[in-house]
Amino acid sequence: MEGHIHHSSSVFDVGGVLSQVLLAFPFVVAFVIYIYAYQISKEKGRDWPVYRLVLFVVGISFALVSVIGPLAVRVHMDFTYHMLGHLLLGMLAPLLIVLSAPMTLVLRALSVENAKRLTRILRSKVVGFFTDPIVASILNIGGLWVLYRTELYMAMHESLLLHLLIHMHVFLAGYLFTISLIYIDPVPHRRTYIYRTIVFIFALAGHGILSKQLYAHPPAGVPTSEAQNGGMLMYYGGDVIDAIIIVILFYQWYQLRAPRPSLVAN
Amino acid sequence: MKKRNIWSGLLFGIGVMGFFDELVFHQLLQWHHFYDWSTTEVGIFADGLFNAFAWFATIGGLFLLADLKRQRIFQRTRWWGAVSLGAGLFQLFDGIVLHKILRVHQIRYVDNLIVYDLVWNISSIILIIIGVVLLRKATKQEVKEG
């Protein structure tokens, strides 16, 4: 290790202990809030489905695995691992956490007054703007194009600040993208199924096209074989996770169209 | 009712052919390549768009089918006719536009490629004919019963 300029393991290195701790911190906070809200909700005498709790714990675990520990270290050495980390942090973890309905749980745990305040924020124009499928897709898929097709990918490995910002962006954009397409938590700004479907087709296409571009033209500093493996992992992995979102989207449509013999009986 | 059966079948046919292509020719036989260096930029774009569309078509087509069954308005002959038509149309589009014009990838990387191209496109035309015959049969049945 000594004399090795790039990988002398300093605490302040990109991908070093400090960056791992800083990236893990928000997820730990989210975990504590969710469990706390779960407790309060129970004390209020309202049940919360166990499967949602499980989805949340698994989702947070995938996010943590991608930012701390052995995978987080390998991510900086091998593009294939980098892509695995991207799939976990930017797609699978957001999907699982969205399915755990965190906002619904928090609204239940809050006092009526605070819940109203939070609802007012959710109804705001800003939230409406960012949860538009087109805006969310541009932030998510467009962000990836910028990351991999510009100097940003190289710069991310040199600057701790960029490293932190990009990783948080990947998760948040993935989360925003998911909530803009499937409605699990309360959604004040609803878009039609057809609108969401059309935007989603283009977003999925953008993801697939980018992964083929990475296969053919590796980002600077990435060996060809790693770029090819990473590109294929991004292509097929992305397809599988997006297919789950498509199933949920259409299932919600299917349920909405269900003939309801008596609305009162519910 | 007629339209909804056709849409469900068409979408499912298109999507299923997309998956058949991926499963058999990409994964099992490995004739197709993940990336062909002679592909045009438009080809990459079109291929990406169609792959994404195939996912939505398959899953959406099946949910439409479930909705038809739930409402008891499913028409077997018409639905299968539309599936065959959709599958044939997609295969023909794939064989002519994606393979030949945009050069996304070839069926197999061999010398006598023309034989593969012919078999591919003729089989897609057969699927289209079967589809049209079934759809007409469904309409005739309706007239008789009507």
From TrEMBL, chain A:
* Protein's organism: Alkalibacillus filiformis
Q: How does it sit in the membrane?
A: Multi-pass membrane protein
Transmembrane residue ranges: 17-38, 50-72, 84-107, 127-148, 160-184, 193-210, 233-254
Instruction: Report the locations given in the UniProt record.
Output: Cell membrane
What is this protein's name?
Membrane protein
Q: Which InterPro entries does the record match to this protein?
A: Caa3_assmbl_CtaG-rel
Please state the protein's primary subcellular location.
Answer: membrane
Keywords, A to Z, come to: Cell membrane, Membrane, Transmembrane, Transmembrane helix
From TrEMBL, chain B:
Q: Where is the signal peptide?
A: none
- Entry's transmembrane regions: 7-29, 49-68, 80-102, 114-135
- Tell me where on the tree of life, at the top rank, the source sits: Bacteria
Keywords of this entry: Membrane, Transmembrane, Transmembrane helix
The identity of this protein, by name, is Membrane protein
Q: Per the record's keyword annotation, is Transmembrane included, yes or no?
A: yes
- What InterPro entries does the entry give? DUF2243_membrane
